[in-house]
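#random but structural
TW: two for the price of one
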Amino acid sequence: MSAQDEPSLNSLLTIFNITRKAELVDHCRAAVIGKSDLANLILACQMQAVPIGHIPIFKHHHPEHLNPTDEDRAAFAANGVGKLSKEARKFTNKIDQMFEQRRLFCGHMFLPLEWPGHWHLFYFDQRDTDQRNNHWEHGSHLHLMNMVTHPRLSPEALAQKLDAEVRPKLGGTIHIRFDRDSNQAASAR
């Protein structure tokens, strides 16, 4: 890790020490987490270089009604080169909509081993990290929920919820700017 990466990684690690919600919100408002920050933390957990447990949570959801049928595939194959028939267009429309409506949930739960009861979940889907069509005014971001934002929720109950729901609905999270393109995200903007 270079010295340039340190402020951003420190900004991420600072989250683990904050126990007051107002302080957490203020810190996250100024923070920017780079893709390498999260990756470095995950690797440090896996190598047991830090006393933090890591649980990855990945879910892929796409609406069943958008799966092309054998008839859709056959119509597309039979169409050949040129303008698409109505039946062949149905196949391409389903594929387009599948990319539009699918959800690729990526979550990382961290459990500091030295602090029982402390937990942190950083998560996003492909829409959260999209820089062009983002629903958040500041663009690409991660969501954070932890024992400060959800004091009545145990990590076990959260893991069960994430496992049970096809499209997890998680409220009360904090947005943190995410720099997916830079290996040296600034700690504040």
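TW: number two ↓
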Amino acid sequence: TKMSPRGTDASDTELEVLKALWEIKSGTVRDVGEVLLRCGHQWAYTTIQTLLIRLQSKGLVTVRKVSTPHTYEPAVTREKLLGMRLKELALNLCDGTPTPLVRALVSQETFSRDDIARFRNLLDELEGKQG
């Protein structure tokens, strides 16, 4: 499934549905509804179905119609969507460079020693790839 140009432009409610789907990997409207209920959302079956169809039209969810009821799956990982959204943010707010974005994230968060070690490893890998 190709991402639509507005693919990352999902509403908050659509993102709640996508997060539920990430949790269960794949499922029916009812399965997604059960996860949403555990998260405190009491949405009607038709509401969840509509949100899944919207997510599908944005290329964020795929549907398998071989089974009845249809089974939905995320078409994008959380990391991929986060990456796309951060890229858009860097483009719109930082003239395309991610540096101010990373600086803002780092300066406003408290990270554990493990987090910092992982960041260091990522930076070392990046530096290695750039040669």
